[in-house]
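> call design_seq(struct)
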C-alpha cells in the first residue's frame, strides 16, 4: 500500500537537502516539464490545462528572476534578468494567443540557460573533487 505521508516527507527532503545549484536545476526542469505539458494540452485543445501549465511555468521563471543577485552577478545577472523578463512576456503572449510556437521559443531559451547552468555544476564538482 502507498504511504502518502512517507512520500511527502521524501519529496520535502529532496528540496530541503538540495544544494542551491541543484535547486535552480530543479526549477529549470519543472519549467521545461510544464512547457511540454502546456504544449501537449494545446495539441489536445485542453485550454484550461494549457493555461494552468503556462501559469506554473510563469511562476517558476519568476522565481528564477527573483533569485538573481545583480550585485554579485554583474553583467551576467543583468542579461539573465532581461532574458527572464522576455520569457515571462512571451509566456503571457503564448497563453493569450494559445500559440505553441511561442511556447517552443520559451522552451529553447530555457534549455540553453539550463545547459549552461548544468555545465557550471559539473565544473564546480570537478573543482571540488
Amino acid at each position: 500500500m502507498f504511504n502518502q505521508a512517507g512520500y511527502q516527507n521524501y519529496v520535502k527532503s529532496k528540496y530541503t537537502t538540495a544544494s542551491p545549484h541543484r535547486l535552480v536545476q530543479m526549477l529549470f526542469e519543472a519549467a521545461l516539464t510544464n512547457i511540454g505539458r502546456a504544449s501537449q494540452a494545446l495539441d489536445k485543445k485542453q485550454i484550461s490545462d494549457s493555461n494552468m501549465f503556462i501559469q506554473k511555468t510563469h511562476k517558476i521563471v519568476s522565481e528564477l528572476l527573483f533569485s538573481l543577485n545583480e550585485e554579485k552577478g554583474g553583467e551576467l545577472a543583468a542579461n539573465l534578468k532581461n532574458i527572464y523578463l522576455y520569457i515571462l512576456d512571451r509566456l503571457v503572449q503564448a497563453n493569450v494567443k494559445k500559440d505553441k510556437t511561442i511556447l517552443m521559443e520559451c522552451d529553447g531559451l530555457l534549455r540553453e540557460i539550463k545547459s549552461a547552468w548544468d555545465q557550471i555544476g559539473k565544473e564546480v564538482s570537478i573543482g571540488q573533487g
